[in-house]
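ok posting inputs for the zinc ion job
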Amino acid sequence: MEPTLKVLRILTGEVEEIPIEIYLRGVVPGEMPAAWPMAALEAQAVAARTYALFYKKQGPRHPEVGADVCDGPHCQSYVRSEWAQNHPRIIAAVENTRGTVGTYQKQVKPMYYSAACGGQTISKWGPWLRPTTCRCQEIVGYTAGHQQGLCQWGAHVMAKDGATYQEILDHYYDMVWVEDYANTKLVKLPWYWIVVRFIEWFLGLITKRG
Ligand SMILES: [Zn+2]
Ligand SMILES: [Zn+2]
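and the output
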């Protein structure tokens, strides 16, 4: 089942509940020009979906109002318009990746991204962010971001050269791409974990006695 997100509208303070794939139709063009190559838009959709789902599952980013995310650049820029909801390229980018999220050790993690990394990304905020060289400086020479995760201009270059969105994502993240975001095992510990821990504790108890 498609999860919903509670999105804080900064302008009015109201909190809207939006199905995640509909939310993404507003975020993809909010974070990347809709005219960019399709694979770059698809990579952006996966990063944005995973980022939002992380906060929904691990705790809201705006707990003061009970919102998972806000609609501004603090979380992810969300374009609230008919244009975005009906744009064929945006719909394609979201639908082609429907439900796909990035996982690291079977958990969704925030897939950070930035506009331009200056030619090198780092992994300061988590081991799922791959330190790698990037070709964004072929187009933009400057660094416009934290240099972690997807570099949007770098994705643009790769997509233009024919890379798929999976290849782009693999370049910037050390993650596994899972097509079922509704699978709660992504973030919850498996049921047998508690049994394993109990057995460990019990064996430890016996061994200490002996
Ligand atoms: Zn926010
Ligand atoms: Zn870059």
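notes: Confidence is low (pLDDT under 50) at residues 184-189. Residues 116-117, 134, 136, 151, 153-154 surround zinc ion (ligand 2) (CB under 6 Å).
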